[in-house]
Amino acid sequence: MTARAAHDVLVVSSYKPLPARLLADDLLGRVRVITEPAFAGLYGGRAEVTCVPSIDDLSAVRDAALGLFADGPVDAVLTPAEAGIAASGLLRSHYGIQGIGYETANACSNKYVMKRTLAAAGVPVTAFRPAYRLADVPAAAADLGWPVVLKPTFGGGTFDVVELAGPRDFAAFAESPGARRLRASRTPLLVESLVEMEAEYHCDAVVHDGEVLFAAVSRYHGPVLRTLGGFVGSYPLPEDHRDQWAARTLLRRVLGAVGLRHGVAHVEMFRTAGGILVGELACRPPGGGLVDGLALQYGVDLWQAFLETSLGLAPTLRPRTAERIVVNSMLPARPGRITAITPAEKLAALPGVRQVTMTRRVGDLIDPDLYSTSHTGVVLFTVGSEDEVPLRLAELAQLYALDVAPVPGPGAVGGAGHGAREGSER
Questions:
Q1: What is the secondary structure of 96-149 as a DSSP string?
Q2: Does residue 425 have a pLDDT over 70?
Q3: Fold topology of 7-102
């Protein structure tokens, strides 16, 4: 196949479809999708959709794919979000499709396997233990020492991630509605030591033939888990920042440990009093407005790089650095029906604003479950130095207003949240 030949692909995903601009790219020919029934309508007329009860059911996905492969060639399997990464890796390994195989895909999505793989390679991570049922959490936490962070082994966007101070805190949480999905989980849970962080970073990279062709280290405005419902976002670190070298060095160690030689990597890191630790990683672009912010800063489109590397092609990168720092900030959301919200043109009048993208409008329902990128819009603005970021965020917070009306009744705003999880990864 030539570099611009049309490739027939299979997309494996649920709540987050492949971006529409990629579906329209002339690199793609026939597009088939394996998804869950609730999300079949997300793909429009561009794709042929096959449904399975759950993307997490690897056997069901494998069996559905067999019929699709028999119906015509598949050049690549694409997965834009955590849900489906392990399944897509299984399909590539099982059916001999080029791309990221099951072992690497599982290490980039199964948080327990991820932490074991990184720790075995000497990459610094927080202490962790598996918990195969919710009832097993207290024993794992006692072994580690309270307080702890509890999370599902598969998931993204701080979905079902909770801090637990001690046994009483756990007991109250375990009986609460917030634990319903963890109580019913069919996959293991992960218990980690709670580590106080001085700064939280994400490192986004493009890899081809084992070489890191592009990497950017960015700092979140604050610890994401503790800023849910606030102005979550980030900005690229200045090149002379003290943590640039350490973060880039860790990035290469992480990629080597999981065997990721082609693709887009999103690696979470945080600085503690004892040094920088690796939190998690994923083999896909980040969510929210992070891709747009990095594109303005560096001229690199991570989604285009994701498409090209997924097809086995060398990414077309032309990185450059903007003179000013591009800051990404998501506008906070609150559960309920939106009755009033600051219009985009008013936000765009703030100093340094480059782009405002509103994702919610009056009348929309916001799900009661907030994620790391739950938002009503994204504002991208520029500053001359890192020191200016807090002031500009304060100005944005002062101008932005959101009014919502409560929606009574269980599940009235989306229930488990599946309908509002688009872009939930960070």
A1: T-SS--HHHHHHTT-HHHHHHHHHHTT-----EEEESSGGGHHHHHHHH-SSEE
A2: no
A3: Rossmann fold (3.40.50)
Please name the helix (run of DSSP H) or strand (run of DSSP E) that holds residue 297, with its range, or none.
helix 290-298
Can you tell me the distance from the alpha carbon of 297 to that of 377, in angstroms, rounded to the nearest whole number? 19
Q: What is the pLDDT of residues 216-234, one digit of tens each?
A: 999 999 876 555 557 889 9
Q: Domain segments of the chain: what residues? A: 7-102, 127-193, 199-420
Q: 3-class SS at 281?
A: strand
Sign of CA dihedral 206, 23, 88, 180: positive
Tally of CB atoms within 10 A around 250: 23
Spatial distance between the Cα atoms of 56 and 70, rounded to a whole number of angstroms: 23
Query: Which pair of tokens denotes residue 405?
Result: 């009306």
Question: In terms of DSSP bridges, do strands 48-51 and 402-405 run parallel, antiparallel, or are they unpaired?
Answer: unpaired
Phi and psi at residue 326, to the nearest 5°: -90, 120
Tens of pLDDT along 43-59? 877 899 999 999 989 99
Contact 301, 206 (CB under 8 A): no
pLDDT of residue 426: 56
At residue 57's C-alpha, the angle toward residues 92 and 13, to 5°, is: 60
pLDDT value at position 368? Answer: 79
Q: Coil, strand or helix: which one is 46?
A: coil
CATH architecture of 127-193: 2-Layer Sandwich (3.30)
199-420 CATH choice from 3.40.50.300, 1.10.600.10, 3.30.470.20, 3.20.20.80: 3.30.470.20
pLDDT value at position 4? 66
Peptide bond into 147 cis (omega under 30): yes
